[in-house]
C-alpha cells in the first residue's frame, strides 16, 4: 500500500500531492479495532474503583462540599460542542467525497476549519486566563498516576494517586488532539491560499512545490488520525461507565459523590464560591448548591 | 522519466458491435479502459501519452448508437451520430434549428464529419494547463495552475469555479439544455437511466475529475429531444476568436414562446463560463411573463452574471455573457450594410 | 521588362504534383533499414544537465543509438541541435534512434535526465530590472554588431549585461515603456527642434506579440550516408544556401552534402537557410550506421520551429498641422529569444524612417535575450512590428488633426530615391532604388472606394460599427551579385538550374521565365532543375527577405545574355559576319538582315559542344562563386552554357511597398471584429508572375490580419513553458476569417535599378495588413481602445465597458 501520492510538476520534478486515501481506511480500521478491543477487554476486566465504603466515608468527611460540583463552565462547554460540530463537519466534508459520496464540500470545509480555528483560539485564551491551564497537561509527575491506573485496570487494588480534574487517559487524549488538530489547522490555513476565499488572493505559488507537498501530506495525515481519535472519543463518551463525564460536558456539573469517587480531592480541590452573602453554604443565592473548582 | 508528447502509445483496440459487448470490455478492463467516440478529444489525450489506457473501446461499429429517429413526436439522436449528420437532418432543421446552429458552430467541417454528438457533450474540460498534462486538481493533484496571480486564463471560468477554473467547451450542450433534451444512459449494470441534459453535467464541486454523471462503465447511448420546445423561437450565438476551428469564449442558447409581445415560456443556457454548461433558471423566472424588450433583457442579463468572479484575464466574460443573454432574450438588430 | 512570358500567368511545373499529393516532402522518403528518431526536450526554461542515465532506454529492444550534445561539433557558441544547457523549455537534449517511433518514444520515457534549474526570464523587461534574472549565464542583452571589416566574415555581436534603474521603470505603472540606457542607437536631424515646431505630439507605447512560424510542414528530415557523403532529405526555403549550413552543423565539407528538397511546406522565414535540427538525423545516421528519419511533431515544432521577435515599442511623433511629421523618436525593447540575435529592431527603425520620411529621427533599442523559444526572421521581420507600433499612432494623429488617414500617409510617404536609416560612415544616408508609394495610395483609395467606406465609418447600426484603415508596409526587396547557369542542349530544350527553394512563392521557377524570354524559348521547352544539390545548382541567394525574384531575375538575365552572346558568336563564327549582326528568336540565332540565315538552337548546342571552351562550360568566368564553378564544371559539355554573375549596377537599396486598405466591423456588444473587405496594392516593380504575385499579396495580408486579430504565443511566466504548443492555441488564420472577396493589385511600375524591373513582394503585405486592420479597429471604436496586439474581443469589450484601456499594459507573451 502506498502511503503517499506523488505527481510530477511542469518541470517534470517529482512532487508530493497528498496522502494515499487508503490511509483513511487504515485509520477507520484502526479506530474501530481499538474500539472492539477495548470494549471486549472492559467486559472481562475488573477495573478497580474506589470502594463504595471508602467513598461513603469521604462523603461524610466532606459534607461541606455542595451536592453539585462544577466541572465545565458554560463557555468551556460551548467551546467543546462548537469544536465538536466543526470537527464533524470537517471530517464529513473531507472524507465523504473520498469514499464516493459527492457534494460541493470545499466551502463547508474551510468555513468549518475557520470555526475550529476560532474556537481553538478562544479555548487557548479561556484556558489560559480563566481555567487551570496545566490541569489538562501531561508531565513526568503523572508517572505514579499512570502506574496506579494501569495496575487498577489490571484488577489490583493499589494506593497511589487518583486523577485530578482530568483523568490521565483524558489528558493523553487531549494532548494527541492538540498536536493533530494544530497540524490540521495550521496546514489547513495555509491551504486556504490555494483556494478561492474572500480573505486573500489565491496564490498556489506562495510556497515551493516541496513545502506544499509536505503541507498537504501533513494535513492528510492529521485528517485521518483525527478520524481514529474521534472514533475513540465518541466511543468513550458513549461508554456507560464514562457517562457521568459525558453528562458533565452537557450539564456542566457532577455530583459530590462522583467527584469523590473518581478524583483526588487534593489534586482537584474544590472550594466555595466567594458569594456576597455566604453565611451558609447552602444559601439560596443563584450559586446555591454549586461550587466552583479552583482556578 | 522524461516526458514525450505526440506519439500514441500502444493499447488494445476493441471495436464491439453492440453496447453489451462494449460494456463487457469496459467491465473487464475497469480503470484501464477508455471509451472512444469520434476520437477528436480522445486522440489528444492518447497522443500526448497523458492518459494511458490498456484498452480502447471504439463505439464506431455499434449500429444502434447511430442515426436520428422519430420518437414520441420528438427525435432520438444516437450518441454516435456525427455532428454533420445532425446539421443535415431535416427534422432537426425544421423543429430544433438551435441544435443545428450549435452543432454547426463546433470546430471545423472536417472535425464535424468525424465528431459525434455524444462525444461533443461528453468531452473533457478545456484548460491549457490541464491539457498540457500538468498535475492540477482535475488531474488528481492539489493545485489549479490557471487560478494563480500570473496565470494566463482568458478562456477560463467566471462562474461555478471550485478549485478548478476550467470550462466546458461543448457547443451543443447549451442548445440541448434549452431543448430539455433527455440523455439516455446505459449504466454499467446494463440498466437504462434517463437524465435531463441539465443534470447530465457535473461541476468541479461535485466531481473535480469528471464532466458528466457518466459513471465508469456507463455509456451515453442516445439523446432524446422532446416535443416541448419544438419549433420555438430560438437564439444561439457563439463568440470565438476565429470563425472556424475555435472553442467558444462564451456561447448562449435560448428557446422561448411568446404570446403577443409577452414571453410565455423561456429557457436559456450558457457555456464557456463554468466547468459545466449553466441553465439560467433565475433569468428564466424573471423573464417569463414580461414583455420581450430591452428592459426585460437588461434586468435578466444583469441577473445572469450575478456572483461572477473573474480571474486575471477573463473579466471580459462578464459583459460578454451579459450581452449575449440580453441578445438571447431581445434578439439582435441586423446591420443594414449590404457588404 | 514585359513580354510573352514575363508578366503573364502560367502553370508552374511543380503545381500538379502539389495539388494531387504526389509531391514528396522530406518525411515521405524511405530508405532501406531506416530508423526513426524521437527527441527528449527540456521541461525547464533554463537548466544545466548534470547527468543522463540512458541505460533503461538502451536496454529496450529496438533502440539503436542515442545522440547527445557531446556528439555534436562545436559551433563557436552558436545554437546547436542538442544542448547540455537548455535555454528554453522544449529545447532538445538528446535524440533516440530506434526501429520505429513508438519504440523511440518509449525509450525517451525511460531516460533519466538530471537537470539543475537555473535562473530564467520570459519577459524581456524583467531582465532589465535592477537585480532581474539573466536568461544566460553570461548576460542578458545583445550589443550592436561590430563594424564590418574588409575581407573578414561578419563578427558576432557582443553579449552583455544591462540593467536599468528603478527610476527608469517609473513610467511602467502608467503603461508607458520604460526607456533606460539603450544598447544601440542612432539619430539624425534636429529632433528637439522638430518637436518644438510641431502642432501635435503623440507619445504612445505598443506591445507587438511574438508568433510562431508554424509552417504546415514541420522541420522533418531524413538522412543517410553513402561513400562518405551525407544524403539528406529536408525542408528548407533555400537549397543552394542550405548545403553549407548543413556541412557546418555536421562538421563536414560542403561538397560532401547532397541536400534534396524539391518541395517545402512553407517556411515564412523559419527555414531560411535550413534548420540546425537537420544535423540530428545526419549525425544519428552516422552513429547508428543506418538511415534515420526525424519526423518533427507539431509540438516539437512549436518549440524548435522559431517565432517572430516580439517588440514593445514606444514612439513619440511630432506633426505639423498638415500632418507632416516633424520629428520621430522611436524606442524598442526587443525579445530576441533564447538564441539569435535577430535584427528586427534595426529593420523596424530603418523602415520607420523610410515610410514616414521624418526630417529628424532618433532610434534607440535594446535587444534582449529571454528563455523563450528561439526566434528567426518571420515574414517581414522588423518593418511589420514597426507598422504595428506606429500605424495606429498615425491614425490617431489623423483623427486629432482632422485629416484623412490616406492623406496623412501620403504627405509623409517616400518618393523616388527616398533616403532612409541612419547617417552612414560616408556621411550620407542610404536611399531606395525607387518608391511609388503615393501612386499606390492613390490607386488603392480609388479601387477600395475609400471615400465611400470612410463616410460610413464610426456609425452604428444595431450593435455593429465599422471602421476603415490604411497602412504602408515596406520591406527590403532584393539583393545582388548571385550567379546563374543554363544550358541549351542538343535536345532543343533550355535547362535552367535553380538553386532557390520551393517554398511556394514560384520565384524559384519565375527566374527561368526571364531566361526563356530573353532567349525566346517557348515555355514548354524550358526545363527548370531544382531541389537537389546533386543536380549542380548555381550560387543562389537565400530565399528570405523577399530577395529571390529581384536577385535571381538579375542573375538569370545575366546568364541568358551570356548564352545569347554565345549564340551570336557561334553563328558569326559559322555563318560569317560579326556577332552583332545576329539576333535570337523562335529558337534560332539568325542574321538581322537575312532571317533565313541562321542556326537552330539544336544546331547551336551541338556546335557549342564541338567548340568547347567557354561555349559549353569548360572555360568559366573568373568571378563566379566556387559552388557555381563546381556545378558548371559538372554540366560542362552538355550544351551551350550561359553562366554569369549578376554584375549589374544598382544605385540604392531595393525596397518594396504594399499598401493595405481594410474595412472592419466591430460588434460592440461582443468585441468581435470581422474584416469586411481588404485590398493590398503593391509597389513591387515589374510583375513577373501576376497570379503568384497577387497570391503573395493576399497570403502575406492573411498573416498580418491574423496577427492583428488573434495569432499569438503565450508563455507561462511561473514555469517559463510555452502554452501555445498547438495550432488551436496559437490560432493561425483560417479561410473563414478573411473576406470572401479579398482584393490585390500591383502598380507594375519597373524598378529602374534592375534590368528586369522586378522587386520582391513576399513580405511587405504582412505589415500593411497588420497596420491597416488595427487602424480600422481604432477608426471604428476609438484610437485608445488597445495598445497591444492581437486586438482580441476581450481587449475591445473591456475597454468599451470601462471607458478606458483595461488590458495588461506591458507584459509580453500573454
Oligomer: heterotrimer
Mean pLDDT of chain B: 96
CATH topology of the largest domain in chain C: Aldehyde Oxidoreductase, domain 4
Shape, per Cα inertia axes of chain B: globular
Number of domains of chain C: 3
Number of strands of chain C: 32
Please give the radius of gyration of chain C in angstroms: 27 Å
The helix/strand series of chain B, from N terminus to C terminus, equals: EHEHEEEHHHHHHHEEHEEEEEHHH
Return the CATH class of the largest domain in chain C: Alpha Beta
Number of helices of chain B: 13
Strand order of the largest sheet of chain B: 4-5-8-6-7
Question: What does the largest sheet of chain B look like?
Answer: 5 strands, antiparallel
CATH class of the largest domain in chain B: Alpha Beta
- Share of helical residues of chain B: 25-40%
Low-pLDDT segments, ≥5 res of chain C: none
Domain module tally of chain B: 2
Strand arrangement in the largest pleated sheet of chain C: 3-4-1-13-10-11-12
Strand content of chain B: 15-25%
Distance between the termini of chain B: 57 Å
Tell me the structural class of chain B. Answer: alpha+beta
Descriptive keywords:
A: Fumarate Reductase Cytochrome B subunit; 54% helix; B: alpha+beta; Uridine Diphospho-n-acetylenolpyruvylglucosamine Reductase, domain 3; 4-stranded antiparallel β-sheet
Structure write-up:
The complex is a heterotrimer of chains A (295), B (339) and C (814). Chain A has helices at 22-44, 52-61, 74-95, 106-129, 143-153, 168-191, 209-238, 243-251, 256-262, and strands at 4-8, 14-19, 68-70, 253-255, 270-271, 290-293. Chain A has 295 residues and is of the alpha+beta class. Chain A has a domain at 75-246: Transmembrane di-heme cytochromes, Chain C (Fumarate Reductase Cytochrome B subunit). The model of chain A is unreliable at 272-295 (pLDDT under 50). In chain B, a hairpin with a 5-residue loop joins strand 6 and strand 7 (192-196). The model of chain B has no long low-confidence stretch (mean pLDDT 96). In chain B, the strands form 3 sheets. Chain B has a 5-stranded antiparallel beta sheet with strand order 4-5-8-6-7. Helix content of chain C is 28%, strand content 23%. In chain C, helix 10 (383-401) packs across helix 11 and helix 14 (507-519) packs parallel to helix 15 (548-575). Chain C starts with 14 loop residues before the first helix and ends in a 12-residue tail after the last helix. The model of chain C has no long low-confidence stretch (mean pLDDT 97). Chains in contact: A-B, A-C, B-C.
Amino acid at each position: 500500500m502506498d502511503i503517499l501520492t506523488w505527481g510530477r510538476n511542469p518541470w517534470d520534478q517529482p512532487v508530493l500531492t497528498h496522502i494515499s486515501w487508503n490511509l483513511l481506511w487504515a485509520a477507520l480500521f484502526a479506530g474501530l479495532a481499538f474500539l472492539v478491543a477495548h470494549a471486549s477487554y472492559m467486559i472481562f476486566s475488573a477495573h478497580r474503583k474506589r470502594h463504595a465504603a471508602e467513598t461513603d466515608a469521604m462523603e461524610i468527611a466532606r459534607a461541606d462540599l455542595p451536592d453539585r460540583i462544577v466541572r465545565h463552565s458554560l463557555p468551556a462547554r460551548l467551546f467543546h460542542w462548537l469544536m465538536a460540530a466543526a470537527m464533524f463537519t470537517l471530517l464529513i466534508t473531507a472524507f465523504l467525497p473520498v469514499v464516493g459520496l459527492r457534494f460541493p464540500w470545499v466551502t463547508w470545509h474551510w468555513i468549518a476549519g475557520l470555526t475550529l480555528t476560532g474556537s481553538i483560539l478562544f479555548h487557548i485564551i479561556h484556558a489560559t486566563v480563566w481555567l487551570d491551564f496545566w490541569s489538562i497537561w501531561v508531565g513526568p509527575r503523572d508517572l505514579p498516576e499512570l502506574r496506579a491506573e494501569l495496575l487498577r485496570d489490571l484488577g489490583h487494588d493499589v494506593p497511589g494517586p487518583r486523577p485530578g480534574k482530568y483523568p490521565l487517559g483524558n489528558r493523553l487524549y487531549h494532548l494527541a488532539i492538540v498536536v493533530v488538530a494544530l497540524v490540521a489547522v495550521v496546514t489547513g490555513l495555509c491551504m486556504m491560499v490555494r483556494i478561492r476565499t474572500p480573505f486573500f488572493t489565491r496564490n498556489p505559488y506562495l510556497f515551493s512545490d516541496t513545502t506544499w507537498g509536505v503541507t498537504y501530506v501533513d494535513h492528510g495525515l492529521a485528517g485521518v488520525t483525527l478520524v481514529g481519535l474521534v472514533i475513540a472519543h465518541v466511543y468513550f463518551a458513549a461508554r456507560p461507565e464514562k457517562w457521568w463525564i459525558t453528562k458533565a460536558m452537557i450539564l456542566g456539573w457532577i455530583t459530590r459523590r462522583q467527584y469523590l469517587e473518581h478524583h483526588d480531592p487534593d489534586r482537584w480541590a474544590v472550594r466555595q464560591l466567594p458569594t456576597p452573602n455566604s453565611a451558609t453554604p447552602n444559601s439560596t443565592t443563584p450559586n446555591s448548591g454549586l461550587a466552583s473548582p479552583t482556578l | 522519466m522524461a516526458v514525450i508528447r505526440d506519439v500514441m502509445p500502444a493499447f488494445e483496440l476493441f471495436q464491439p458491435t453492440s453496447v453489451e459487448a462494449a460494456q463487457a470490455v469496459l467491465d473487464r478492463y475497469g480503470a484501464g479502459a477508455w471509451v472512444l467516440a469520434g476520437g477528436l478529444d480522445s486522440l489528444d489525450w492518447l497522443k500526448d501519452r497523458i492518459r494511458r489506457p490498456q484498452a480502447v473501446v471504439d463505439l464506431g461499429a455499434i449500429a444502434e448508437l447511430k442515426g436520428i429517429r422519430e420518437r414520441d413526436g420528438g427525435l432520438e439522436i444516437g450518441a454516435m451520430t456525427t455532428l454533420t449528420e445532425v446539421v443535415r437532418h431535416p427534422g432537426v432543421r425544421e423543429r430544433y434549428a438551435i441544435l443545428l446552429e450549435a452543432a454547426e458552430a463546433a470546430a471545423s467541417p472536417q472535425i464535424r464529419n468525424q465528431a459525434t454528438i455524444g462525444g461533443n457533450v461528453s468531452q473533457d474540460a478545456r484548460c491549457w494547463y490541464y491539457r498540457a498534462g500538468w498535475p492540477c486538481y482535475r488531474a488528481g493533484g492539489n493545485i489549479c495552475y490557471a487560478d494563480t496571480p500570473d496565470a494566463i486564463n482568458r478562456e477560463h471560468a467566471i462562474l461555478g469555479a471550485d478549485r478548478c477554473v476550467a470550462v466546458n467547451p461543448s457547443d451543443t450542450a447549451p442548445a440541448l439544455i434549452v431543448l430539455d433534451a433527455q440523455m439516455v444512459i446505459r449504466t454499467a449494470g446494463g440498466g437504462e437511466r434517463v437524465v435531463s441534459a441539465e443534470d447530465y453535467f457535473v461541476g468541479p464541486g461535485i466531481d473535480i475529475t469528471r464532466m458528466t454523471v457518466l459513471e465508469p462503465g456507463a455509456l451515453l447511448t442516445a439523446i432524446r429531444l422532446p416535443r416541448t420546445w419544438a419549433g420555438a423561437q430560438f437564439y444561439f450565438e457563439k463568440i470565438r476568436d476565429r470563425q472556424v476551428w475555435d472553442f467558444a469564449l462564451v456561447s448562449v442558447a435560448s428557446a422561448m414562446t411568446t404570446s403577443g409581445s409577452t414571453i410565455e415560456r423561456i429557457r436559456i443556457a450558457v457555456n464557456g463560463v463554468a466547468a459545466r454548461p449553466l441553465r439560467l433558471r433565475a433569468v428564466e423566472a424573471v423573464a417569463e411573463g414580461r414583455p420581450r424588450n430591452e428592459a426585460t433583457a437588461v434586468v435578466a442579463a444583469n441577473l445572469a452574471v450575478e456572483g461572477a468572479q473573474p480571474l486575471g484575464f477573463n473579466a471580459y466574460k462578464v459583459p460578454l455573457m451579459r450581452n449575449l443573454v440580453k441578445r438571447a432574450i431581445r434578439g439582435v438588430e441586423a446591420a443594414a450594410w449590404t457588404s | 521588362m514585359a513580354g510573352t512570358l514575363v508578366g503573364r500567368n502560367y502553370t508552374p511545373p511543380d503545381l500538379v504534383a502539389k495539388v494531387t499529393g504526389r509531391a514528396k516532402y522530406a518525411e515521405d522518403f524511405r530508405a532501406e533499414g531506416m530508423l526513426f528518431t524521437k527527441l527528449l526536450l527540456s521541461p525547464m526554461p533554463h537548466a544545466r544537465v548534470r547527468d543522463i542515465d540512458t541505460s533503461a532506454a538502451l536496454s529496450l529492444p529496438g533502440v539503436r543509438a542515442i545522440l547527445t550534445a557531446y556528439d555534436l561539433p562545436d559551433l563557436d557558441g552558436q545554437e546547436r541541435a542538442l544542448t547540455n544547457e537548455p535555454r528554453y523549455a522544449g529545447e532538445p537534449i538528446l535524440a533516440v534512434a530506434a526501429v520505429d517511433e513508438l519504440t523511440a518514444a518509449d525509450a525517451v520515457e525511460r531516460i533519466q535526465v538530471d537537470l539543475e534549474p537555473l535562473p530564467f526570464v520570459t519577459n524581456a523587461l524583467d531582465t532589465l530590472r535592477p537585480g532581474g534574472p539573466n536568461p544566460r549565464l553570461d548576460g542578458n542583452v545583445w550589443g550592436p554588431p561590430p563594424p564590418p571589416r574588409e575581407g573578414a566574415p561578419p563578427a558576432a555581436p557582443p553579449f552583455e549585461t544591462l540593467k536599468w534603474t528603478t527610476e527608469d521603470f517609473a513610467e511602467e505603472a502608467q503603461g508607458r515603456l520604460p526607456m533606460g540606457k539603450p544598447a544601440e542607437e542612432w539619430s539624425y536631424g534636429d529632433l528637439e527642434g522638430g518637436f518644438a515646431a510641431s502642432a501635435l505630439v503623440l507619445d504612445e507605447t505598443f506591445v507587438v506579440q511574438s508568433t510562431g512560424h508554424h509552417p504546415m510542414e514541420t522541420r522533418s528530415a531524413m538522412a543517410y550516408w553513402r561513400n562518405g557523403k551525407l544524403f539528406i532529405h529536408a525542408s528548407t526555403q533555400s537549397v543552394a544556401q542550405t548545403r553549407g549550413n548543413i556541412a557546418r552543423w555536421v562538421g563536414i565539407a560542403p561538397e560532401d552534402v547532397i541536400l534534396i528538397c524539391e518541395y517545402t511546406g512553407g517556411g515564412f522565414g523559419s527555414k531560411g537557410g535550413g534548420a540546425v535540427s537537420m544535423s540530428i538525423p545526419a549525425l544519428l545516421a552516422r552513429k547508428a550506421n543506418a538511415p534515420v528519419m526525424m519526423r518533427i511533431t507539431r509540438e516539437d515544432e512549436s518549440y524548435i520551429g522559431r517565432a517572430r521577435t516580439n517588440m514593445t515599442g514606444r514612439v513619440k511623433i511630432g506633426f505639423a498641422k498638415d500632418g507632416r511629421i516633424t520629428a520621430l523618436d522611436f524606442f524598442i525593447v526587443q525579445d530576441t529569444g533564447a538564441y539569435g540575435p535577430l535584427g528586427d529592431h534595426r529593420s523596424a527603425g530603418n523602415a520607420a524612417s523610410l515610410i514616414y520620411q521624418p526630417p529628424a529621427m532618433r532610434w534607440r533599442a535594446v535587444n534582449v535575450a529571454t528563455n523563450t523559444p528561439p526566434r528567426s526572421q518571420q515574414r517581414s521581420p522588423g518593418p511589420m512590428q514597426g507598422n504595428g507600433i506606429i500605424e495606429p499612432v498615425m491614425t490617431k494623429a489623423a483623427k486629432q488633426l482632422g485629416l484623412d488617414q490616406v492623406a496623412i500617409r501620403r504627405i509623409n510617404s517616400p518618393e523616388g530615391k527616398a533616403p532612409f536609416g541612419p547617417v552612414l560612415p560616408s556621411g550620407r544616408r542610404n536611399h531606395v532604388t525607387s518608391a511609388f508609394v503615393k501612386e499606390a495610395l492613390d490607386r488603392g483609395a480609388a479601387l477600395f472606394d475609400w471615400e465611400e467606406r470612410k463616410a460610413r465609418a464610426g456609425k452604428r447600426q444595431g450593435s455593429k460599427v465599422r471602421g476603415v484603415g490604411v497602412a504602408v508596409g515596406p520591406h527590403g526587396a532584393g539583393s545582388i551579385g548571385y550567379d546563374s547557369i543554363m544550358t541549351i542542349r542538343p535536345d532543343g530544350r533550355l535547362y535552367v538550374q535553380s538553386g532557390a527553394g520551393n517554398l511556394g512563392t514560384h520565384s524559384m521557377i519565375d527566374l527561368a521565365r526571364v531566361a526563356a524570354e530573353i532567349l525566346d524559348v517557348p515555355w514548354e521547352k524550358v526545363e527548370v532543375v531544382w531541389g537537389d544539390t546533386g543536380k549542380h545548382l548555381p550560387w543562389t541567394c537565400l530565399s528570405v527577405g523577399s530577395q529571390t525574384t529581384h536577385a535571381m531575375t538579375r542573375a538569370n538575365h545575366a546568364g541568358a545574355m551570356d548564352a545569347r552572346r554565345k549564340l551570336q558568336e557561334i553563328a558569326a563564327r559559322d555563318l560569317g559576319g560579326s556577332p552583332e549582326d545576329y539576333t535570337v528568336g523562335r529558337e534560332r540565332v539568325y542574321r538581322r538582315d537575312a532571317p533565313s540565315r541562321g542556326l537552330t538552337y539544336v544546331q547551336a548546342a551541338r556546335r557549342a559542344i564541338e567548340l568547347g571552351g567557354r561555349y559549353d562550360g569548360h572555360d568559366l568566368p573568373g568571378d563566379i562563386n566556387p559552388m557555381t564553378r563546381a556545378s558548371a564544371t559538372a554540366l560542362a559539355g552538355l550544351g551551350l552554357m550561359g553562366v554569369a554573375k549578376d554584375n549589374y549596377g544598382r544605385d540604392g537599396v531595393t525596397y518594396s511597398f504594399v499598401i493595405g486598405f481594410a474595412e472592419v466591423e466591430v460588434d460592440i456588444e461582443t468585441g468581435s471584429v470581422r474584416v469586411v473587405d481588404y485590398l493590398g496594392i503593391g509597389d513591387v516593380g515589374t510583375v513577373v508572375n501576376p497570379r503568384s504575385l497577387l497570391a503573395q499579396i493576399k497570403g502575406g495580408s492573411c498573416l498580418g490580419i491574423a496577427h492583428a486579430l488573434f495569432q499569438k504565443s503565450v508563455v507561462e511566466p511561473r514555469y517559463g513553458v510555452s502554452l501555445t504548443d498547438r495550432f488551436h492555441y496559437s490560432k493561425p488564420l483560417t479561410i473563414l476569417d478573411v473576406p470572401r472577396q479579398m482584393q490585390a493589385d500591383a502598380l507594375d511600375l519597373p524598378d529602374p535599378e534592375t534590368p528586369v524591373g522586378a522587386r520582391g513582394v513576399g513580405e511587405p503585405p504582412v505589415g500593411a495588413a497588420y497596420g491597416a486592420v488595427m487602424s480600422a479597429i481604432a477608426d471604428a471604436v476609438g484610437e485608445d481602445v488597445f495598445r497591444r496586439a492581437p486586438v482580441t474581443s476581450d481587449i475591445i469589450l473591456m475597454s468599451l465597458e470601462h471607458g478606458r484601456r483595461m488590458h495588461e499594459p506591458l507584459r509580453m507573451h500573454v
